[in-house]
Amino acid sequence: MFQKNVALKTFNTFGIDAYASEFFAFQTTDELVKALKEGKNSELLILGGGSNLLLTQNFEGLVLKNEFKGIELIKETSDHFWVEVQAGENWHQFVLTAIENGWAGVENLSLIPGTVGAAPMQNIGAYGVEVEQVFDHLTAVEIETGKTHQFTHADCQFGYRESVFKKELKSKFIITSVTLRLNKTPEFNTSYGAIQDTLNEMGVKEPNIKAVSDAVIAIRQSKLPDPKEIGNAGSFFKNPTIDKLDYEGLRAEFPSIPGYQLPENKVKVPAAWLIEQAGWKGKTFGNIGVHKNQPLVLVNYGGGEGAKIRDLAFEIKASVAATFGIELNPEVNII
Ligand code: FAD
Ligand code: EPU
């Protein structure tokens, strides 16, 4: 049954106090297809854990909240496990289940908030790993027809915080399950950031997937604000990629500018550095602001308005463009 005039505050990690005119939580494909028929003329918002969106106003339409549950080992070979996960499962709880079962490959993606269904949307990534590395296929219901389709890895067109579902197929499909191909023999990726140092501090001599997950959790907890305490949606912007020549030019002017070499003469520059240098780190404006430890994270200290956070993001974007000539693009979905 559709609920009317539902408060969304507890359904978004920014903690924005907005309302949806209609709301429906679905647990099966049949329920979803029925809701799509009933809500045919409404604007739709597909909601997972609400950890990558910013509500800038009340939502005058139908919010469909994904509560599909289930984790199933569907196939096994000498090297791999294929695990089908329903889209409404919590991502981090799934990672913990994987670790318990010895399914390797997602340990570096520990503690990322949100649902499994949203993970392929922006190809979630952290600590040197992206979900596309273990992705096999997904199923999704087409909004227009209610039909179920399957998408292979190639169909999804994954990139850095990108997939086909954010481009040509934006707002056309609802992901209902994701099948991952996990490894029997772990391939440890401990070179990124402080993972190795943290494992050393933990006294871990031979890495194992539980230890890597624990190290990632410890690092994340020390860097990122917990949405239960301070409203936020993780990195607000993506890290921009620029041409190597432009990077060299900037380095002549700003010798400390960090950059990570990519293929095709491109360089990725940390947005956090750009925002900090432009003077925004730790700034507060009433009950919203730029986090004091991680300036890529915009925060709501309580009672902040989504539209004000969006305006702050635009001001930051303009100031980074004016200082460095680099365009920042939001990672967060602005609704
Ligand atoms: P939502 O916020 O509910 O939705 C995000 C978008 O996907 C919306 O446009 C929504 O309409 C759409 N959507 C959701 N579910 C479906 C579905 N089943 N079918 C179709 N469309 C759907 N991200 C990273 O990549 N790496 C990180 O390290 C990381 N760290 C974070 C840390 C914090 C503290 C926070 C708050 C966020 C972080 N994020 C990170 C961002 C976020 O956790 C991910 O993007 C996550 O995948 C969002 O999942 P969700 O279920 O909350 O999606
Ligand atoms: N930096 C600063 N000042 C700061 C913090 C960072 O200058 O206060 C610079 C430093 O040069 C540092 C660099 O930024 O080396 C990178 O910082 P960090 O390692 O914290 O990572 P990030 O690039 O800010 C990205 C992802 C995170 C992901 C981490 C770990 C994006 C947009 N963000 O952050 O993902 O967890 O790496 O892999 O790619 C998210 O997407 O929501 C998210 C949190």
Percent strand: 25-35%
Bound molecules: flavin-adenine dinucleotide, uridine-diphosphate-2(N-acetylglucosaminyl) butyric acid
Q: What is the tally of beta strands?
A: 20
Strand order of the largest sheet: 6-7-12-10-11
- Unreliable stretches (pLDDT < 50, length at least 5) are none
Please name the CATH topology of the largest domain.
Uridine Diphospho-n-acetylenolpyruvylglucosamine Reductase, domain 3
Radius of gyration: 20 Å
> How many structural domains in the coordinates?
3
Q: Which range best describes the helical content: under 10%, 10-25%, 25-40%, 40-55%, 55-70% or over 70%?
A: 10-25%
Shape: globular
Question: What this model shows, in words?
Answer:
With 335 residues, the protein is of the alpha+beta class. The protein has helices spanning 29-38, 91-101, 153-156, 195-201, 209-223, 244-253, 271-277, 306-324; strands spanning 3-7, 19-26, 44-47, 53-54, 59-66, 71-76, 80-86, 125-126, 129-130, 135-142, 148-152, 173-183, 231-232, 241-243, 260-262, 266-268, 284-285, 288-290, 298-300, 333-334. The protein has 3 domains: 3-66, Uridine Diphospho-n-acetylenolpyruvylglucosamine Reductase, domain 2, CATH 3.30.43; 71-223, Uridine Diphospho-n-acetylenolpyruvylglucosamine Reductase, domain 3; 231-334, UDP-N-acetylenolpyruvoylglucosamine reductase, C-terminal domain (Uridine Diphospho-n-acetylenolpyruvylglucosamine Reductase, domain 1). Helix 4 crosses helix 5. 39% of the residues are buried. The model has no long low-confidence stretch (mean pLDDT 97). It contains 8 helices and 20 strands. A 5-stranded antiparallel beta sheet has the order 6-7-12-10-11. Strands 1-2-5-3 form a 4-stranded mixed beta sheet. It has a 4-stranded antiparallel beta sheet with strand order 13-19-18-17, covered by helices on one side. A hairpin with a 2-residue loop joins strand 8 (125-126) and strand 9 (129-130). Uridine-diphosphate-2(N-acetylglucosaminyl) butyric acid binds at residues 126-127, 193, 223, 234-235, 238-239, 258, 270, 272-273, 276, 281, 294-296, 331. Residues 126-127, 193, 223, 234-235, 238-239, 258, 270, 272-273, 276, 281, 294-296, 331 line the site of uridine-diphosphate-2(N-acetylglucosaminyl) butyric acid (EPU).
